[in-house]
Write a structure and sequence with these properties.
It is globular and about 65 Å long. It is an all-alpha fold and 225 residues long. Helix 1 packs antiparallel against helix 7 and helix 2 packs parallel to helix 7.
Amino acid sequence: MKSLAYSLFAVLVTFAIGYSLFLVFLVVPNEEVMGAVQRIFYFHVSSAFATYIALGAVLLGAAGYLFTEKPSFDALQEGAAEISLVFASILFFTGMIWGNSAWGTPFTFEPRLVSSLIMWLILIGLNLLRWYGDSSRLSTHCSILGILSSLTVPLVVYSIKFLPQFQQLHPQVVEKGGLTDPSMKLAFLITSLSVMGLCIVLIWIRTRIGILERLTRAQRDEVFL
């Protein structure tokens, strides 16, 4: 039953992704000021939402492992950390592309951009620790750093409040009602939901792979004992 539900959800996400691409590139009009480059906004913000979901899964897996030491929680935090890095990278680099085209600079040292950079660097460190760290206490160390990485989410979300808007390049498109055309609102909704759904599917797949890897290692260790 779970496999059927997952398969149906994955199919739904696939169609939603296709529909979102259709809306963004063929239906949504160009933004009046930024023109066609504003279309990257839909994937930029959706990637932010997906990153937050994945980091929530990292927090769940890390806390669960510290309390129970169950391998399934460790597999969850490992998989979610990898998916977090993927979407955080998309978020960071689409932001640089958008900023360079719209404002002539890919990066400025303002709160939202700096906090996003910090989140991205911590995720890189978390994944490097998982790949190359000492295996004896690896899961515990990754859990601690995973919890730290998840704490960057409120920092990124609320960092834009640290300075007045006129002192920042980063726009508040959604909060300030920037999506004026109804098709923009629909495209934003569908793209956000589909990308978040894709994030959940990828976390589920990677977690299942991680669980199987741990079962295989455990069985192999039993053979050699």
